[in-house]
Amino acid sequence: VQLEESGGGLVESGGSLRLSCEATSSTDVIDQMGWYRQAPGKQRELVAFITTGIGMANYEDSVKGRFAISLNNAKDAVYLQMNSLKPEDTAVYFCYAREWAPQIKDYWGQGTQVTVST
User: Could you give the percent of the chain with pLDDT greater than 90?
Assistant: First the structure.
C-alpha cells in the first residue's frame, strides 16, 4: 500500500484546510485509515481515524467539533476537513493505513505541513 497526501499549507487562525490521502496498490487489505500529527519537539499524536468497514470515526479530544474525517466511496482515500484552526494545530500531518489481520501493519504517507498563523 502506498499513500500520497495533499492539502497542507499556511492558513490564518480560524481558517480551514482539507487534507487528502489516496492509497494505491492492495487497498483491499486496509481496515482503518487516519491521521497523526507531529509538532516540533513533540511526540506524534493520533488526530483521527475511521474504519473502512462501518465507517466508525474517532477523534483526539482537542479536535472534536472542529475536524471531520471521511472516506471516499471506494474506501481507498481518506480526508480530514479541518475548521476553526488554531496555532496549536501547527504540525506535520501524516496519513496512515492499517491492516488488522493477520497482524497489525501500518503504512505511512510522507507527511504534509500545516501551519496556522496567529
Answer: 92
